[in-house]
């Protein structure tokens, strides 16, 4: 797998219009945000969808509608759907979405999908994804998740080919804030595992940009957007997801990095 060097996560499962009035929650809003972010320099979109009440959902029909609109309005944009449980969905429901929709790319939180009690079911699911050509990015929250991934690859539950991960920094910290040092432990485990995944980072809070720059310097990629943070590096609140893209690109340029 080759992930875009810069992806945008414009919506997330939990933020609402109260968090930011420009948070895109309807399909037209998500498509409009995607087009703006693509023009601003994003190579990919991490997509969540909401139901009529604005609640996170894993509705395959809504995802199919979104994917069709994105293909028409933002051609060439890499689109990855999410299977995030958000405290609502079971591993079986997550698997059902992916098996029904067969998206080109999906993110799957390792600790969520492996909550399935029958390990053989999980192994069959990942084999299905591999055979169907579905690009899976494994969402990891700490060094223990990275160790768990390495174990599952070693035992054959998760295919070694085209392995991709997203290191999420600060999701379970007090105040849900991140620090560049949060990357040290999971990256150390990753390098020690002998695996060579295509990897990226997302982060929360005012140090988000510093975390993403640390990832880029270490050979990783970046995901930015309103799902994780709505504040620019100068402390101002971004007007749009496209502004967050431009803010990161400017920071990378200042640091001598290319996005």
From TrEMBL:
<keyword id="KW-0479">Metal-binding</keyword>
<dbReference type="InterPro" id="IPR013785">
    <property type="entry name" value="Aldolase_TIM"/>
</dbReference>
<dbReference type="GO" id="GO:0046872">
    <property type="term" value="F:metal ion binding"/>
</dbReference>
<dbReference type="InterPro" id="IPR008567">
    <property type="entry name" value="BKACE"/>
</dbReference>
<keyword id="KW-0862">Zinc</keyword>
<dbReference type="GO" id="GO:0043720">
    <property type="term" value="F:3-keto-5-aminohexanoate cleavage activity"/>
</dbReference>
<protein>
    <submittedName>
        <fullName>3-keto-5-aminohexanoate cleavage enzyme</fullName>
        <ecNumber>2.3.1.247</ecNumber>
    </submittedName>
</protein>
<keyword id="KW-0808">Transferase</keyword>
<dbReference type="Pfam" id="PF05853">
    <property type="entry name" value="BKACE"/>
</dbReference>
<feature type="region of interest" description="Disordered">
    <location>
        <begin position="1"/>
        <end position="21"/>
    </location>
</feature>
<keyword id="KW-0012">Acyltransferase</keyword>
